[in-house]
Amino acid sequence: MTQIILTLFNGLSLGSILLLIALGLAITFGLMNVINMAHGELIMIGAYVTYVMQNLFLNYAPQQYFDLYFILSIPIALLIAAGVGMILEFSLIRFLYRRPLDSLLATWGVGLMLQQLARSIFGAPNVGVQSPSFLNGGLEVGTLLFPYSRLFIIGLSIVCLVSIYYYFYRTSSGRRVRAVMQNRQMAECLGVSTRKVDLITFAIGSGFAGVAGCALTLLGAIGPTIGTNYIIDAFMVVVVGGVGALFGAVAGALGIGFFNTVFEYVTNASLGKVLIFLLIIAFLQWRPSGLVTSRSRSLD
User: What is the mean pLDDT of the chain?
Assistant: First the structure.
């Protein structure tokens, strides 16, 4: 029973990490149909923002306030990554809508440039980020130990998911985004500024990528290629969940996280990754559109 509970917790933890990474991609790829290969580098930006904030607090803030660096890093990473996303959308992406291959190649080139820029500023070797003291250790429940860092990531992913849901389904701006996604021409006829909607939506997706990068600093060292290690998993979550479906991304992340944990426990890490890829391929043969399908006259 103890092993079963730990396996379920590890699956939930991995699923939460994948969800946090894929939330931004679910917006830019799922809602906007933009294949943003630079999404991993936006995650990297959030991670390095956390690293810079740590160094600023180490050098200039009193020791008793050191733990605040991580709390402040989350909104700052969101704003900086969103700003980079707005610049990217305004200067490049807006010319490549409805041109998926061109957007894929262009954003891949942008990602390589951002990686090289990070190497020039911070160096090629990985750097470490010290976890705040309140996330050290874990919650003891009987003989079980649940790390505070994993619990924090689970809670952060829930907060981000609720925030995105509230924005898209409870605000007028979010309704305009969904209207443009479902029928751009009709939304333009009704007076919606689709150009402004595209810019804001891409910025939101980029901002949540920065938050994911901030959370990943709790799991280990960071480097210029930290985002590249997760970009394939993020695309898998969005495709399995269903393009354009926010709750599909949740189901896809938790499903992939759970099965990946089970396969790794039964076999090993390498074979477990192979099995999860085979499972996803078999699933997409059965449901090519993913778990949740968004239907409208425009999409049909």
Answer: 87
Asked whether the beta carbons of 247 and 240 are under 8 A apart, the reply is no
Assess contact for 13 and 150: CB atoms under 8 A. yes
Determine contact, residues 41/85, Cβ cutoff 8 Å.
Answer: no
| Both tokens assigned to 237 | 């979550």
User: For 113-129, what is each residue's pLDDT tens digit?
Assistant: 999 999 999 998 999 89
How many angstroms separate the CA atoms of 180 and 281, rounded? 31
**H/E segment holding residue 147:** strand 144-147
Closest CA to 72 of 50, 102, 99, 96: 50
pLDDT in tens, 170-209: 999 888 888 887 788 888 898 888 889 889 989 999 999 9
Cα 116 to Cα 93, 107, 109, 120, 121: the distances in Å are 21, 14, 11, 6, 9
pTM score of the predicted model: 0.90
Total residues belonging to the chain: 300
